[in-house]
Specification:
The protein has about 800 residues and is mainly alpha-helical. About 75% of the residues lie in helices and about 0% in strands. It holds the Pfam family EXOC6_Sec15_N.
Length: about 800
């Protein structure tokens, strides 16, 4: 193809050089296809549009000639091309005829082939249709088989497998199912079947919720029972240990013992008997249904409602009768929840279980506070406390904290002991009221073991011959049993309350029982029911035996509290029955003094101006000694030696005082040396009586104390019979020999002994003899003492 030839713009004739340049620029712009806008604007701006038009006309005329030249050149080429085409026309005609022949031959040959090809295509289409039909039938058969399998699983209750079949149908075949009818049926039935499975599973789960409540109660009772059995085994081990310690304590031989603990590995074996299969099945089905969170919430809410229902305490049934069911139900609930937490694979969270437990503990503490505040019987409170502590042990084994419950139990220990003290006060009052103030007769060894050895109140390790008459009455073992029961109940309440060392608490309440209740009851008995010497003596003997029993009580409390006996011995206090012991001694002494006062009235028969001193003692002292000897022979059978010594010391001191009072009596105007000598003989008889009691007293000091009880009368008689009575004024001698005398009494009695006419001391010398120096000494003593007074 020829390239386009560019023609240069020609200048317009008759134009100046400016117009020529303008024409050249315009021609160049048109030839190059540039925008003519600037030229137009310039022409109008200069006010010479005619010039622009003229230039354009010149350019057009210049191009006409060029166009003619081009056309001429192209025309020649066209004529040549037409000639060439005419020469080719004959060749085309021959080619056309050849092609027509070739086509005819091809049609004749390809006809049969085309018919065969049509048959093949038709057969292939049929085959494809058959394959498609077979695939559709196969798919439908698989779908129907899955439907049949799902129906079979549904009829067998295998909901999970049925759901898996439904998932397979829905995920693998539903979109590929060729049958629109079958597909519509599946689309309608699959949700219905899932809803049916959900309803059935929820029904089973609801049945399980009902069943698990009854199972939980039995489960809680079983767990608490196992905790009780374990505690009993611990108690048996402690008893064996205490018995071994007692053998070691009281035997000279060494005992070797070993404490074997039972194998507790299978303690929780009985707790495996509850079935969580329906729960886990429902959980698994809901997971398959993509309803896991919904089921978790549903489960938690239902269990929470059940727990709230378990908190209800019937006002129609006493809590003492219903407390075991109440706590067993809650224990079973949380044992089940603990198992679900450990094996449920996230069905319930640990935080949810902890929140439920905190709610339960708060409610149980509230119920216990309310019920304990209403109880007025210590035994009822103890029974509930024991069961609650066993509940705590059972729940602690599966990991639940029970400190709050134990704190509530510990908080009510004061009320429990107040009720226990009240019960013991009534029992002790009844035991004392039934006392006949008679020594207890024991006919068999088991009675001795039960009433004496059981409380370590024997005075000898040798078993006595039977029948055996004990020095105490039946009140003593009765009271000992009451106190021992108090200790055991107190220890039982304090045990398993979260406080390991509770001996001080038990000892405090034991001291309160002994010093307030028992001591007060004995004091009341002494002040109201003791009316004779024998009764007073029996009460004093009983208190002396109880004093030995108090040591046993302290040791028994220590052993039950699990502390060493040496610790209990270090913390032992003074005898807690001081008031009743002193009152018993005082009333016995008072009765004996009253009896002695009756015998001392015989001193009025003494001749204070006798001419001859009595050698065998005055009548009153002989009667007193006979009475005291009879008393001692009876009292030494029941009264401890120290009690007997104290009583005799009081009585002898009283006799001594009565002798001095007789000498001071206004009815005795004058006395002589012979009567004083007779009183000296009386005192010697009393001192001889005290000496005869020496076999009863093991210590020499006890004998001296008995004789010292007669110190006032003995020192007075010694002073009156002394040859140098003025020695009384010597402080050293007075402190050594006359420290029991009151100088006012000495003055008064000495004046009765002095004879103004000097006949009183006639026995010291003849009337016409020289003045008696003893009389002068006595006069001087009287004068000095009067001056002092």
């Amino acid at each position: 193809m020829r390239s386009r030839r560019k023609v240069a713009a020609t200048a317009v004739d008759g134009c100046d050089s400016g117009e020529i340049s303008e024409q050249l620029l315009l021609s160049s712009a048109i030839c190059n296809g540039e925008d003519l806008g600037p030229f137009v604007r310039k022409a109008f701006a200069s006010g010479k549009p005619e010039t622009l038009l003229q230039l354009l006309r010149y350019f057009a005329r210049s191009k006409e000639s060029e166009i003619e030249q081009v056309c001429k050149a192209h025309y020649q080429d066209f004529i040549l091309a037409v000639d060439d085409l005419r020469s080719l026309l004959s060749d085309v005609d021959s080619l056309k005829s050849s092609l027509s022949d070739f086509n005819s031959r091809l049609q004749s040959v390809a006809g049969p082939l085309l018919s065969s090809l049509d048959s093949f295509v038709e057969a292939q289409n049929v085959s494809n249709n058959v394959d498609t039909a077979l695939q559709s039938v196969t798919t439908c058969i698989k779908v129907i088989e899955l439907c049949l399998r799902a129906n079979h699983h549904l009829s067998k209750g295998s909901f999970y497998m049925a759901l898996k079949c439904l998932d397979s149908i829905e995920n693998e075949f539903l979109d590929k199912t060729p049958s629109s009818t079958l597909k519509r049926m599946l689309e309608r039935k699959i949700p219905e079947i899932r809803s049916h499975i959900e309803r059935e599973v929820n029904k089973e789960f609801s049945d399980w919720l009902v069943e698990i409540r009854a199972v939980s109660r039995n489960l809680g009772q079983l767990a608490i029972g196992e905790a009780s059995a374990a505690r009993q085994r611990e108690e048996d081990l402690r008893i064996k240990q205490r018995q071994s310690e007692e053998h070691i304590r009281f035997s000279s031989r060494d005992f070797v013992y070993a404490l074997q603990e039972d194998d507790d590995e299978n303690d929780n074996g009985g707790l495996l008997g509850f079935d969580l299969t329906p729960l886990y099945r429902a959980y698994h089905i809901h997971q398959t249904l993509a309803l896991e969170d919904h089921f978790k919430q549903y489960y938690f809410e239902n269990r929470k409602l059940q727990l709230t229902s378990d908190f209800q305490v019937s006002s129609m049934t006493p809590f003492l009768e219903s407390h075991q069911t109440f706590f067993a139900q809650i224990a079973g609930f949380f044992i089940v929840e603990n198992r679900v937490l450990r094996t449920g694979k996230g069905l319930i969270s640990k935080m949810d279980v902890e929140n439920l437990w905190e709610t339960a503990v708060t409610k149980m503490c509230s119920v216990l506070d309310d019920q304990f505040s209403r109880m007025q019987t210590a035994n009822h409170l103890l029974l509930i406390k024991d069961y609650v502590s066993l509940f705590g042990v059972a729940l602690c084994r599966v990991g639940y904290p029970v400190d709050s419950l134990l704190f509530v139990l510990s908080k009510h220990r004061d009320k429990y002991h107040e009720l226990l003290l009240s019960d013991c006060r009534k029992k002790i009052a009844e035991a004392l009221a039934a006392d006949k103030f008679e020594q207890m007769l024991m006919r068999k060894e088991y009675e001795y073991t039960m009433n004496v050895l059981a409380f370590h109140i024997q005075t000898s390790d040798i078993i006595p011959a039977f029948p055996y008459v004990a020095p105490f009455s039946s009140t003593v073992p009765d009271c000992c049993r009451i106190v021992r029961s108090f200790i055991e109940d107190s220890v039982s309440f304090m045990s398993y309350c979260g406080q390991m060392d509770f001996y001080d608490v038990v000892k405090k309440y034991l001291d309160q029982l002994l010093s307030e209740v028992l001591d007060g009851a004995l004091l009341k008995l002494i002040n109201s029911s003791v009316h004779g010497v024998s009764q007073a003596m029996q009460v004093a003997a009983n208190i002396a035996v109880l004093e030995r029993a108090c040591d046993f009580f302290s040791r028994h409390a220590a052993l039950l509290s699990g502390i060493p006996l040496r610790t209990a011995e270090r913390s032992r206090r003074q005898f807690p029955l001081n008031k009743s012991r002193d009152a018993a001694g005082d009333i016995l002494s008072g009765m004996l003094k009253t009896k002695v006062d009756g015998l001392m009235t015989l001193i009025e028969n003494v001749n204070w101006m006798t001419d001859e001193p009595s050698q065998a003692g005055n009548e009153y002292v002989n009667e007193i000694i006979i009475y005291l000897e009879t008393l001692v022979s009876t009292a030494q059978q029941i009264l401890p030696i120290q009690v007997l010594k104290r009583v005799l010391q009081d009585v002898l001191s009283h006799i001594s005082m009565k002798i001095v009072e007789a000498l001071l009596s206004d009815s005795v105007k004058r006395i002589n040396v012979n009567s004083i000598t007779g009183i000296d003989v009386d005192i010697q008889l009393l001192e001889s009586f005290a000496d005869n009691l020496s076999p009863l007293f093991s210590e020499e000091g006890d004998k001296i104390q008995l004789k010292n009880a007669l110190a006032e009368s003995r020192q007075l008689i010694n002073l009156l019979l002394s040859n140098h009575p003025e020695n009384y004024m010597n402080p050293v001698i007075r402190e050594r020999s006359y420290n029991a005398l009151d100088y006012r009494k000495v003055v008064k009695i000495s004046e009765k002994l002095r004879d103004p006419s000097d006949r009183l001391f006639g026995s010291f010398g003849n009337r016409g003899a020289k003045s008696n120096p003893k009389k002068k000494s006595l006069d001087a003593l009287i004068k000095i003492l009067k001056d002092v007074s």
